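User: I'm curious whether this sequence folds into something compact or stays loose and floppy. Could you predict its structure so I can see for myself?
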Amino acid sequence: MAKQHRGEIVHEVVLKSGVKVSRLYGALGISRPTLYRRFDDPNLEFDFIRRVGEVIYHNFAEEFRELAPTAAEPVEIYQITTLEECKDRLLRVHEQFMEKVRQYDELKARYDALLSERNGQ
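Assistant: Here's the prediction. I'll summarize afterward.
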């Protein structure tokens, strides 16, 4: 399989998008000649390709699978069939929340103590 020329692909998509090249290079903060040199680069960086996509409102993941989002962690699904199960689940979530609140309060108290100590010096 032939290697993709990233710059040519991006240039083609830009032309099809209808976005003016002057708007594109202005939004990217580069000059017109620099933009065209980028289009000539067969190994154009994916970060630059993403930035172009943001300006022209195009998801380049269709052209470059490397830009496709990675799979997220599976979400745990709860099958609650009774009111009692719902209550138990809600209580567990509430306990977890309260633990996070406690941790936050403890951290904030330590932070406030450090600020007081710093300001007192």
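Summary: The CA atoms of residues 7 and 40 lie 5 Å apart. The helical segments are 6-17, 21-28, 32-39, 46-56, 83-120.
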